[in-house]
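An example makes the point: we let one protein speak, the chain in one-letter code, the fold tokenised, and here it is:
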Amino acid sequence: MRSVLTDVKDAEDVPQTFPDLEQRLQPVPPCRSLRESVQVYKEHCRMAREFHQVKHDIAVLEDRKRKLLAELVEDEKVAAEIARLEEEFRRLTEENRTLVNVHNERTQQLETLCLTSRMTQDSS
């Protein structure tokens, strides 16, 4: 069984201020002669440490969230650029197909004209 003196010593080992807490929420030093007061103080200090840890964890997570949102914005820009390039590629591929068809038609027309021209020269 722990003695009141041990609890008081433990309570003295705990820092008495917690910068994350408003002044009105700071643990009030215990009445060292009352075991319950010391226990309440120790519990309050434990909760203050947990509060500090939770605030730290929240800050870390918010920082991570900020970084992920920045990555998301960058990914969206890249995705938009990819979509633009895919559309340009589709358009250029179609234009290329059309130009190849026109070239083939003109080549055929040229061959026909050449044949017609030779036949006309041969007839004369």
Observations:
- The longest helix spans residues 35-123.
